[in-house]
Write a structure and sequence with these properties.
18 strands; 10 helices; alpha/beta; 30% helix; seven-stranded mixed β-sheet
Length: 416
């Protein structure tokens, strides 16, 4: 074969093989390219409390490496209960190295949620947090009343003395910076900032969020494993911008599943259903410097509670047959769960290429299933006897992600 023939053969091969068929790239340092970002989002899985020891750690690590996961979402957080933070961070610092030994490319995500409780007053403000914000250091604890909305808005929204913080307040910035930096020090390279639009009522031009995220990114550039931290949040508006600059590295949102009343317990995805994000992720200049028309995003099987009519259609709002999304999913048969994940993955890739389904790996269940209060995707075993068994399906979906001949149906079939 001549050089010219070889070149023509290689050129033809490059034209015939779509870009999606090439290997994913997980290399980054200091910034992230669109290709690397999408590589991580395409291998994202929710692993709630992974870094605080929920479930069997060895089996959870085995599940992650077996499926090919690269982004472990919601692996550590506090939902109120801030006094527990030091203990959670200690656990994370011991667990994260074990995960990174199994896969050095794994990104672990922590959460900075839209809640602060009075327990925050039990934690001392370190001198380095004061210094980062340009304040003179002093010996004191965090101040709850100086974080929440001064006009009383969303006070006690999450229960007595558990409120929505106001990002425009200096004490909130101090707390969020401390929390984010602590998670980075524990080995996390991603931060989910929850419902950012609940916290920006006094931040119409997003200047305050921009300031906080700039401080967090500056800290990560010096202290994070690869000098970078992925920042995301739930964005019902489609995303936040500061001028033409996107605040977040990627967007995220719940799946928003529409009931099929004529087919009991079944659900589908629809563009425009409720406040779903499909087709609405805003574009601009990403934090790493590249411009996009639609910022890539994750959608997840979210948790928030159970209605007064679990299992019934027509409850309204975002309820799926009276459940939150993960509880609805867990209440289905194993075969339908597996089928539905294939459907959801393909539906999103077909209807909005900017979107990626974050697979369910570990998540709390507000509506227990046969006494199980936690969903694990793991294959059932002695290590994880309560596994729901989606591990093999997740592995197969991701393996087929580079195979363009995969033609899973775009409408789920009814259960037999």
């Amino acid at each position: 074969m001549t050089r010219r023939t070889t070149f023509r053969w290689l050129l033809a091969l490059a034209i015939l093989v779509p870009a999606s068929a090439y290997a994913r790239d997980y290399r980054f340092d200091g910034s992230v390219s669109p290709e690397v970002l999408e590589s991580y989002l395409s291998r994202s899985i929710t692993t709630m409390d992974l870094l605080t020891g929920k479930g069997n750690l060895d089996d959870n690590i085995r599940m992650l490496t077996s499926t090919g996961a690269k982004f472990a979402g919601r692996s550590i957080y506090v939902w109120g209960h801030e006094a527990e933070l030091p203990g959670r961070l200690e656990l994370a610092r011991s667990i994260a190295p074990k995960i990174h030994r199994a896969d050095p490319e794994m990104v672990l995500q922590a959460c900075v949620f839209e809640i602060v409780s009075r327990q925050v007053e039990r934690l001392a403000v370190p001198a380095w947090a004061f210094e980062a914000l340009g304040w003179p250091a002093e010996q004191r604890n965090f101040r709850y009343e100086q974080m929440i909305y001064a006009d009383g808005r969303d006070r006690d929204r999450w229960g007595m003395d558990a409120s929505v913080p106001d990002i425009s307040r200096l004490e909130t910035k101090l707390w969020f910076y401390y929390l984010a930096a602590s998670y980075v020090d524990a080995g996390c390279e991603a931060l989910h900032f929850g419902q950012v639009e609940l916290m920006n009522r006094n931040d119409p031009d997003t200047r305050h969020w921009w300031e906080v995220l700039a401080l967090v990114r500056k800290y990560a550039a010096k202290h994070a494993r690869r000098h970078f931290v992925f920042c995301d949040a739930h964005v019902p508006s489609g995303g936040l911008l500061f001028g033409d600059r996107l605040l977040l590295d990627f967007h995220s949102f719940p799946l928003r599943i529409a009931e099929l009343p004529e087919r009991p317990q079944e659900g589908v995805l629809r563009v425009g259903f409720v406040d779903s994000i499909y087709g609405r992720s805003r574009g601009g200049v990403a934090p790493s410097g590249w411009r996009c028309e639609h910022l890539p995003y994750l959608i997840e099987l979210d948790n928030w509670g159970v209605s007064s009519r679990p299992g019934q259609a027509g409850v309204g709002g975002c309820w799926v047959w009276g459940y939150d999304e993960i509880s609805w999913f867990a209440h289905q048969s194993e075969s339908y769960r597996n089928q539905w994940l294939r459907y959801a993955w393909n539906w999103v890739r077909e209807h909005d290429p900017a979107g990626f389904v974050q697979m369910p790996g570990s998540r709390c269940l507000h509506a227990p299933v046969d006494g199980k209060h936690w969903y694990f995707a793991n294959t059932p075993s002695a290590a994880t006897p309560d596994g729901f068994g989606q591990e093999a399906t997740i592995r197969a979906i991701w393996a087929a992600d580079t195979d363009t001949s995969d033609t899973q149906p775009l409408i789920p079939n009814p259960e037999s």
